[in-house]
Design a protein that fits this description.
single chain; 2 domains; Neurolysin, domain 3; binds zinc ion; globular; mainly alpha
């Protein structure tokens, strides 16, 4: 190892430690911290964030990278150290281009924005959020202006969550997906009455009984208490403090066991990704997920592709019958499979089924693009939202709290984030096609609860690489294709026909 590589690795190890500490503070705040700790926690977290920013944008790091790049050009392009130089350069450039004053303004606007959003949502009044949102859009424009070389201003926003993805690629992909999904939803012949998961898992169940049942399911698919925890929270997430220290969360709705179950499966998918990165990448900053879309492909794969499949339902029913029998409402495996694949247009994204979910995302993407391009002004946003819900999902919005105000993202300045949820769905289906090629007996494996080979396939093809390969390159390496909607649509049509939602000719 050259002295420069050793110096870079030492810097990255320190950054990796700071990211882990910052994640631990976040996890603690969302699960354990008494409410009165919030003010002090905000100070401590801000100090860590400043320390990270100072190290990421340190001019000495820039000089070190200048010295390393000629060396990297002569090395194996796939070696860990060459990739580390690439990502350190990318993080450095993004960090130094945004002036400190703008970073401070953004951070303040995010805190104020979330406060305004909470009040507006509680009052069901968009007017109370209007100024905060207009401020966020203005700051996003200033942020975008810090970067040059992007074809479309939205590219700079996307790049924070999905490195390298462009608006020019995403727009036709999502338009095609929209045009395919709208008739599928219409053909599914939804009723007026929304019953989530076809009524499976509804009842009354205490949180303790739910926790025992969820843990039992998760242990069946690979949850290992040696390096994982499961704790309750309000908005579930998975936090990797380190690859050997994975904190999963879920929430317990006492009337609906599906919430705890599917959140648990979802966060397990995120956690497993971060737990299975190659040990050679520990403490290098390459031991992180490469993008939110790839991260989300792992959670959706366990939640939906596996978790709502017929063989998984066959495995799940006897397991739940032993732990929380009332949750099944007398359904057998086939009944459960049909129930959890019900298609039902509804108002709220986070409660949407697998089919309609992507239309909620496409609406947000269309609106974000229009706000970024300046073809939509903030005052017209609520009407544009309501029109889009009618056009895409055929539902009437009852008020801003259940419409334009339902998500926290825009209030926190997260524009360009929503598309990654649908990217995750698309990519999960692409990965599953490849996995089925390699494991043709995967249905039998799932049905008998043998999940080890699926976990191993994911580790080999996705998890172990961490952030080493940019998303586009990772997708090509694993699927031998670019991002595409066909495998997802095929998967969806097959499942909806198979579970009786769509007529076989549809
Ligand atoms: Zn997720």
């Amino acid at each position: 190892m050259t002295p420069e590589v050793a110096a870079l690795r030492a810097r990255m190890a320190e950054l990796s430690d700071l990211h882990g500490i910052s994640m631990l503070l976040f996890w603690d705040q969302q699960t354990m911290m008494p409410a009165a700790g919030a003010a002090a926690r905000a100070e401590r977290s801000a100090t860590i964030a400043l320390a990270i920013h100072a190290r990421e944008s340190d001019p000495e790091l820039g000089a070190l990278l200048d010295a390393l790049e000629p060396w990297a050009a002569g090395e194996d392009p796939d070696s860990d150290d060459v990739r580390l130089v690439y990502w350190a350069r990318r993080d450095f450039e993004k960090s130094v281009r945004v002036p400190a004053e703008l970073t401070a303004e953004i951070s303040k606007a995010n805190a104020l924005g979330q406060q305004a959003w909470q009040e507006a949502r509680a009052a069901n009044d968009f007017g109370r959020f209007r100024d905060a949102l207009a401020r966020q859009i203005e700051l996003r424009h200033r942020y975008v202006a810090c970067f040059d070389g992007h074809e479309h201003p939205y590219d700079a926003l996307l790049d924070d969550f999905e490195p390298g993805l462009t608006t020019a690629e995403l727009r036709p992909l999502f338009a095609e997906l929209r045009d395919a999904l709208v008739p599928i939803v219409a053909a599914a012949g939804a009723s007026d009455h929304v019953v989530r998961n076809g009524g499976a898992f509804l009842g009354r169940f205490g949180a303790d009984a739910q926790r025992i049942a969820v843990l039992d399911v998760l242990e069946g698919i690979g949850f290992d208490p040696d390096f994982m925890r499961l704790d309750p929270t309000v908005h579930p997430f998975a936090a990797a403090i380190a690859p050997d220290d994975i904190r999963l969360t879920t929430k317990y709705d006492e009337q609906d066991f599906a919430v705890a179950l599917y959140c648990g499966l979802h966060e397990f998918g995120h956690g497993l990704y971060q737990a299975r990165v190659d040990r050679s990448l520990f403490r290098t900053t390459l031991d992180d997920p490469v993008s939110l879309g790839v991260h989300e492909s792992q959670s959706r794969l366990w939640e939906n592709v596996i978790g709502r499949s017929r063989p998984f339902c066959a495995w799940l029913v006897p397991r739940l019958a032993a732990r929380l029998p009332a949750a099944l409402n007398g359904l057998d495996a086939e009944g459960l499979y049909r129930a959890v694949n019900t298609v039902q247009p509804s108002l709220i994204r986070t409660e949407a089924d697998e089919t309609t979910y992507n239309l909620h995302i496409i609406l947000r993407f269309e609106l974000e693009l229009a706000l970024t391009e300046g073809t939509l002004v903030v005052d017209d946003l609520p009407d544009a939202w309501d029109e889009g819900m009618q056009r895409l999902l055929g539902v009437e919005v009852t008020g801003p709290a259940e419409g334009v105000l339902q998500d926290v993202h825009w209030s926190a300045g997260h524009l360009g984030y929503f598309p990654t949820y649908t990217l995750g769905n698309l990519l999960a289906a692409q990965l599953w096609v490849r996995l089925q090629d390699d494991l043709p007996d995967v249905d039998e494996l799932l049905e008998r609860g043998d999940f080890g080979r699926v976990r191993e396939w994911l580790r080999e093809h996705v998890h172990r690489h961490g952030r080493k390969f940019p998303p586009r390159e990772l997708v090509r390496r694993v699927t031998r294709s670019d991002l595409t909607i066909d495998p997802f649509l095929r998967y969806l049509r097959e499942k909806l026909t198979d579970s009786g939602v769509l007529a076989p000719t549809a």
